[in-house]
Specification:
TIM Barrel; eight-stranded parallel barrel; 11 helices; 8 strands
Length: 219
Amino acid sequence: MKFFVDTADIKQIEDLISTGFVDGVTTNPSLIAKQGSDMKEIIKNICSLIEGPVSAEVTATDHETMLKEGEYLASIATNVAVKVPLTVDGLKTCKKLREREIMVNVTLCFSAAQALLAAKAGASFISPFVGRLDDIGEKGMDLIEDIVIIYENYGFDTEVLVASVRTIQHVIDAALIGANVATLPPKILHELYNHQLTDKGLQAFLDDWKKTSQSILPK
């Protein structure tokens, strides 16, 4: 499974890249707005830090303007994946951009039917929002399982990118189901390697080693 980090904060991205965990980045207008700087420069800087896909989202809602915005975003860097909403105009835009070999991330997916349409439109990634489905009493992971099965049935190349991830269990469940990607807030990515027994065990090893008065490195 690939991990994308869901942020537009350059410092956070730089810190996480050093771990080797990050395969891509996802942004959205809300995340960009929080940075208080020029959108183009933010996307350009992120794309220079990482080789993997960097999702940059259109803000228009009509097909014609979405297409223009998508082409502009794709011109910023070769690894930009244009993010479009799962609407009729968004899917039309997806199809046109893919014909021009531009990566497209179709976002705000909440049903298997929507995901099927996105795959037929040629989407590079489909982003189902599991946390938001959980919020309204549905099981977000059931949707991930349905999409994975449908895509496998028909050999679609669209990658399932699990979004709105709220917990470590979301990540584990997505991996067990066979999703291709999970996009994670930095907080969740850091939590993946934390466990109280790891900390407890490490401290016990260090305490025992200290009693020997030895050093592994030669003096």
